[in-house]
Amino acid sequence: MNDLSIAPLSAIQTVTTTDQVFESLYHALITFKLAPGTKVSEIEIAKALGVSRQPVRDAFFRLSQVGFLLIRPQRATLITKISSQAVLQASFIRTALETACFLDAVNTMTEDDFDEIRSLLAQQKTAIAADERSKFHELDDRMHQRICEMSGHGYAWALIQEQKAHMDRVRFLSLSFGQQTAFDQHLSITDALFARDADAVQKHLEEHLGRIKYILPQIREEHPQYFEDSDT
After folding, report:
1. Per the confidence metrics, is the pTM higher than 0.90?
2. Where do the coiled-coil regions begin and end (predicted)?
3. For 100-138, what is each residue's pLDDT tens digit?
4. What residues contact residue 47 under an 8 Å CB cut-off, 6+ apart?
């Protein structure tokens, strides 16, 4: 038998350098530390993050796949501007997938699951009080992800993530005025889940996820420089 140098499963690292670079850049993009319409360099990013160019190149490709970067051979890579059409299409797909997950969660969530969601809600409330918008955004996503996982459809969250990238920059900008509204809607959704009221869950979730359609024009008017010219 061959002497294979394979690490035990417990020692295998599941988070790669590329994953870390991707998450770091994704966060910088949705919080506008890297602004739409500007150029971005593999060399500069690699130097800033203290990594080689290969994981940055791989992360750039993944970011281009979700619509954040425009990679142009032999030319500078550009951070894409926000497309209103892409945001609305992503909202439609996310609502369909997440509604199916949440409706199943009505029957699958346990009391321990409810306690975990209550803890996330408490953390969201703390983030609002401190006006920590980035933290609130993170906790918002975490709550939605965990409910999808608790429904038995955790795999659906990967599909939702691919779509919601188009929404995330708009969602972050909306937190300058909409954190409390988002939190209140979370309370309505989770109260319905705790009561195992499927009709109310669907009603409140669709209202919550559909809100982006109504705030998008305001965000576009306040930040026209971040949107594609065809949107203005």
Report:
1. no
2. none
3. 999 999 999 999 999 999 999 999 999 999 999 999 999
4. none
d(CA 166, CA 96): 16
Find the angle CA(43)-CA(46)-CA(51) to the nearest 5 degrees: 140
Note the pLDDT of residue 10.
46
Overall fold of domain 9-79? Arc Repressor Mutant, subunit A (1.10.10)
Distance (Å, whole) CA 169 – CA 32:
8
What is the C-alpha end-to-end distance of the chain, expressed in Å?
67
* Residue ranges covered by each domain of the chain: 9-79, 84-231
DSSP classification of residue 15: S
In CATH terms, is domain 84-231 a member of 3.40.225.10?
Answer: no
Where the chain has pLDDT below 70, the residues are 1-14, 231-232
In degrees and rounded to multiples of 5, residue 69 shows phi and psi of: -125, 145
Cβ-in-10-Å burial (0-12, 13-18, 19+) of 14 comes to: exposed
Alpha helices by DSSP H, the chain: 17-30, 42-49, 53-65, 84-108, 111-129, 133-150, 155-194, 198-210, 212-222
